[in-house]
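Quick one: structure tokens for this chain, please?
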Amino acid sequence: MKVIFTDEGVSYFTKSGKKINRFKLSDGVEEYGIHVVDFSPATIQRMQLLDYISKMELPLEDVVSKRKEIIDLIKLMTYGMLYRQFNTLLFENVVESELIQHYNRHNIKNPIDYRTKINQKVLDNILTKNISAVNEIKQMMCQPVIKRIETNESMHESEKNMYKNLARKYLDTLDPLIYFILSIHRGSTGYFQLIRKGQQLLAQFMDKASIPEYLALMLVELLMNMAMGDDQSSALKKLLDDDNIYILLRLSKKRHEKGDRARMHFMISNQKSGFDDMKQKINHRITANISGKSLKDFYEGQTELQENMNLGLYYLSYLNEACKKVHINFESFVNRSETDATTTIHIVLTI
């Protein structure tokens, strides 16, 4: 797997004495990054949250031999984009609040805006001294969501714990500057207004929790589907022998301005896939009627789906429907390069 860095990522790793290589990716662009053989999805996500990663390219053999790890990786990367957008929207509310506008009127030379940065060590020291205030903010923000989870009788205990951990993860990945601003205005009217806004946003983003699961399963199944075709007895051998199939992920760069939205663009390409056939399948599945059916119910009633490699196309329908419900912009389309006849599936999520 190739991990391509942002300028911040290149700067960090070169200063740390790490060797950076120049790669030509499947999209024809040469960029700097590293080649990873054995990887920890959690480590990759930490790099993503630090805004160090701009692209990732997965070779086909990784998807076949490390299917579970790849699914986990795609899920974590998608959660990372959700954390980022939650942070962006909450920070936007902080900057636009009356509390900050009042502060800026009295601190014209050092206003707080979208580009405000405080030395990380200084910020960490301040928050360490005010850890009780930070914990109070987290507890207040997640309290309504935790209560909703605990009173949900349809959830097993393991599911409840998973969702409670997810809620806390959203808050743990917030920009420390948000906690700094809230802690120094603790107890004010503006403080409680922003706490309530944080509660509302957290509830909205908890409702998006199914998206990473659908996306990861769909992408892996689509990748397998593109290569397998009708002759499945030798499908695995064909997969491993075919070095023309790849998946490329592009992550939008975080912009420190109002209205920024996190964007993920997946490209799955294969020089041997039939363009018209694949395009027709994509267009058909994106409009499949799934109303009133859970994913579990749908698959239990479609045994033929479990016998072929078209599962990814049905996940596509569910992903499209799920994204509409939680106001995530979802796009899927297929195109073909006239120069090398490569068929490429594009999956784009704008959060």
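The chain has two domains: 2-81+209-350, 96-206.
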